[in-house]
Each structure stands twice: as C-alpha cells, then as structure tokens.
Fold this sequence. Notes:
The chain has helices spanning 2-11, 23-33, 40-81, 97-105, 140-145, 147-150, 159-162, 171-177, 217-220, 228-234, 254-265, 274-277, 279-317, 319-327, 332-363, 365-376, 383-386, 397-423, 427-431, and strands spanning 85-89, 110-125, 130-138, 153-156, 166-170, 184-195, 198-212, 223-227, 243-248, 269-273. The chain has 2 domains: 2-73 and 282-431, no CATH class; 92-267, no CATH class. It contains 19 helices and 10 strands. It has a 6-stranded mixed β-barrel with strand order 2-3-8-5-7-6. It is an alpha+beta fold. A hairpin with a 2-residue loop joins strand 6 (184-195) and strand 7.
Amino acid sequence: MAEAAVDRSSKSGLGPAGKPFSTFERLVAWRYLRARRKEAFISVIAGFSFVGIMLGVATLIIVMAVMNGFRTELVSRILGINGHMIVQPVDGPFTDYPVLSSKLAAVPGVKMALPLVEGQVLASAQAGGSTGALVRGARAEDLTKLKTVSDNIKSGDMVGYASGDGVLIGTRMADQLGLRVGDLITLTSPDGDITPMGVSPRIKSYKISGLFEIGMSEYDSSIIFMPLEEAQLYFNAEGLVQSIELFVDNPDDIDDLRPKVEEAAGRQIAITDWRQRNQTFFSALQVERNVMFMILTLIVLVAALNIISGLIMLVKDKGSDIAILRTMGASAGAIMRIFFMTGAAIGIVGTVAGVLLGVLVCVNIESVRQFFSWISGTVLFNPQVYFLSQLPAEMDLSETISIVVMALTLSFIATIFPAWRASKLDPVQALRYE
C-alpha cells in the first residue's frame, strides 16, 4: 500500500517525499496566490499585507536615510567651521601662538592649526535692527585654508578681509539686518574701555567685505569673521589668542593624536575634542534614530499580522483541497511548505518593492520635499528650525540590509502558524461534509 501511494504520488507530480520546495509545491503555492472570484476577500487581505510591508520597508529606509543624512550634514558643517581639537592654555595665555601653531600643525595627522580670538557682540545696522553674534578673529591665510568658508563666499571677496579693513558675515545675518557688501555693520561689546565711571561698552563699525553661506542657518545667521589683529584690539587681547583649533585628517583618530599634540606643545595645555563639545547633541540624535527604527518596525509587524489572518482564511477555504492532496500522498511537510511559500511570497515581493520605493524616494528626496511643499503650500523642513538649507538623505548599506532581513524574518515567522495548522488538518474531517 505504502509503495503504491508513493508511486501514485510520483506519477501525480508530487515529487519524492521530503524534497523541500519541489516543483509541485511551488505550482500549488502560486495557484493559491492567484485570486479567483470566490476568494476575492482573501485576495484583498493579501493585497493589504503586500502594501503594508512595502510601505513599512520603504518608510524605514527613507526615515533612516534622512536621519543619517541629517547627522552627516550636521557633522560636516559643524566640523567644517569648528576645529576637531580645541587647544587652550593652562599655565598662561598663548602669547607665542605663531610658533605654537606651527609646531601643532607639524604633528602628523593635523591638517591645520587655527589661532582664534572669540567674543560675543551685538551686531546692528545703521538703518536699524540688531542681533547677537559671535565674532571669530582669524588670520586671513588661515581662513583661506578653511574651505567651508572661503569656498562659499556668495558675495564680495576676501580682499578687504586680508588687508584688515573688512569683516565677513553670513548671508542670513545680512538678510536679517538688511546689509550688503560695502555696508557698515556696528558691533557693540560689553567688555570695552575702562573709564573712571567704570567699564564702558566698546562700539565700532566695520565695512562688510564679503558674505558667506555655509549652509547651516545657525552659523550663517550668527558668526562674524574678523581679521585676527583687529579682533585682538577690539577684545583687549593684544598679542595673544584664546585658543588654537586643530583640524585633523581623520576626526575619529582624536584619541591617538592627543598625546602627540601635548608633546608637540611643550607646555601645559587643555584639549577638548569635537565629541566632548557636541556629546549631548549627537547622543540625542542617536537615541532618536534608534527609537524611530523601533516605532517604524511596528508598521512591518502589522503587515505581517495581516499575512497571518489572510493565510488562516486561505487554509480554511482550501480545507477540501488539502484533504485531497493528503489522500493523494502529499506529506504534512509538503502542505506546510506550500502555505509557507504562499505567505512568504507576499513578504518577499513586498520587501523588494519597498526597497525599490525607498531607494527611489531617497535619490529624489529634495524633489519630493519641494513637490509636497508646493502641494501643501507650506514650507516643509524649514531651515530656520532644522539648521540645514535642504533635506539630506544618505543610505547605509548595512542598515538597509538589516531592514530587509527584519522584514523578511517577520514575514516568514508570520507564515509558520497558518502553514503548520494546514499541515495538521485531518483529511477525514475536511471531507466529511463534501
């Protein structure tokens, strides 16, 4: 009897027992995926499952890419204008900063040493209007090497700055105060001249030599670059600087460079790196990124639950088919694999479609933002709020692979119970009322 059943099974195209995903199993699984009129409701559930997985995967890829791009852009802009290592004096002011800067710049791995004088001021225009600003005094030759600024001069030039007769301000500050190249900007510092009546604020006007646009609104609206010697006079710091900022080849190698910089300085110094100065900010970004990943994973989970409900209904509808296949010699494992492939196909196709949709949106993210801004009539991703002039997106290969693996895993797990239930169906009970 058993040999005859096996022989009938082979002749019927069921394939040898125990063979995983045989041609017969794939054909039956594909047949169950195709909708027929009486199975329209099951098809609708399968369609919602497919759309849910596709949108869930695409949303995860897009959101993670935007957050990665957001972090990369912020890091590049923050580190493009601020040093990776900030060297400050401990035993006395940096009066020998020209020599010390040369020593620090000669350390292997250091690209540039930038002596700085900084101070807070109130910037105002003659026509009215004022705003708080940070004045950064730097040498013209150093600022020329700082490509984030020198390569982004939108109006004017650095000729007046190099001669010591002008300052550079951001485009957003210029728009806010109504200033242009050649206009005068008035700076007021509380640390001014000492008089018999006390310390009087120092007020002085400077000609605007050029307008820069870094692309980070916080900097474009608040930073003023002033020639180093003029900044020393303005802030009562003649002949010295407050700090020396070091720009390195690889910001991740800060820990290895620290002892070399301390040795090259030859004096007591305090070193602060970019990670310490921005630790709270980047930690918050990392936490937000992880939380968003977990929340958006729920979209894929809900879609996977739809696969379970759809397959359970399909198993119930195909009870007589399952019983006939079992009586023809199909094993319980074959039935389980048929329904597993049926549900897994929805997850696989939905995941692939989600990846394609996510990549397409990420590649055209700025165009998508502009389109929705035009449709809604509002400004999406306001630079004044998010610090960047355009919406960034940067896909990470390992992260995308993890999203794909997660979606496929949830889809496969969702198919196990309905497929197992189908394999345990009793043919006698299924055919009793047929």
